Amino acid sequence: VSAGNGCGHTLLTPHSGTLSSKNYPGTYPNHTMCCWRLQASPGTSLLLAFGDLDLEPSEHCAHSSLLLTDPQSGTAYGPYCRNSVPSAPLLVTNSSTVTVLFNSTSHRSGRGLLLSYATSQHPGTHYTQEHIRYAERVWMGGNPNPPLTICFSVYCPAGCKDIHGDIWGNPKQGYRDTSVLCKAAIHAGVIADELGGQVTLSREKGITLYESTFANGLLSKRGSLSEKRLIFHKVYCLLSPACDDVLEVVAFNASSWWHEVDVLGQDRAWVAERAALSTTGHSWAAKPNTEAAWLELDLGTRRNVTGIITKGASEQHNYYVTSYRVSSSRDGKNWRPYRSSSGQEDKVFEGNADSQAEVSNTFIPPIITRYIR
């Protein structure tokens, strides 16, 4: 839980989370306070990673400070500010409960703080370049002559999607090694932001150009040559190598379709069969002013569906879907909505912003089904 007027981006779960001060990475406001209470499962302990800590310096950090306390043992860590920083980027506690207190008074500068945590069941919380290098050193054991390709595994906390920082690249090419690691992992579809999770990746030789794509609610940037790049490996794809193949659609169905008569009096049928991604010209469209329109895909048999790619009608027809929900069925009669990790509400996927670009969204976990709407 969190309370106070100085809280920024916050996502807290029993397994991991991310929190920041208000306006981060812009200057944090004067005279604010935020108190976060981190609670893990009994019998586990919390590991905290300092992504950024930039509070204006003062004697004994009296003006702005970060203080961490363990209410079970009474142990305190800090107070921290710019002239009194943590001795290591990772803090290992012996408690399942930690209180994080941020205070500010009058000041002129400072980005504030960015902090993440995970439990002892999920060690290795990393998302900054310092944390990546730390993970590599641990994995390599101090080897002075590392191999060309370095493989390692880290744990990404929930809430990385909205932290500050850029990513360059895409799942097929890989990502510039200067990308924010866990943010790139969400873009690549190997973890869900609301859950976090363990990430397996390799650090390999860079490439000349990284193409920009929109995926899983994040837009990567177009990037130039880099010395190294990050490539993420999907655990479920390692178990099923064909899981990234394009699935064949046996039949399309829809709630309705648009019968258009253009200005020249020519008929154009926007029927469901034209919804295939590779179709040239116009696509499928529901009857105008239709509410709760749906498009249905029949895969012929039950398949392992790991994601969906959407695209607008075409360059000639500037129509596209900006957001959508997904339902699945094994028999075509009984439908189950795809829900967020909380299980309380249907998940809304971010769609397209124009009619040209392809946008992908990943299902974590995958859906085993025959029919998709």
UniProtKB/TrEMBL annotation:
Superkingdom to which the source organism belongs: Eukaryota
Broad class of where this protein is predominantly found: membrane
Region: Disordered, residue numbers: 329-352
GO molecular-function term, one example from the UniProt record: signaling receptor activity
Pfam family, any one: CUB
Start and end residues of each F5/8 type C domain: 237-373
Domain LCCL: 154-230
UniProt domain CUB: residue ranges: 7-120
InterPro entries: CUB_dom (IPR000859), FA58C (IPR000421), Galactose-bd-like_sf (IPR008979), LCCL (IPR004043), LCCL_sf (IPR036609), Neuropilin_MCO_CoagFactor (IPR050633), Sperma_CUB_dom_sf (IPR035914)
Membrane topology designation: Single-pass type I membrane protein
Protein name listed in UniProt: DCBD1 protein
The organism of origin for this protein: Bombycilla garrulus (Bohemian waxwing)
Lineage of the species this protein comes from: Eukaryota, Metazoa, Chordata, Craniata, Vertebrata
Gene: Dcbld1_0
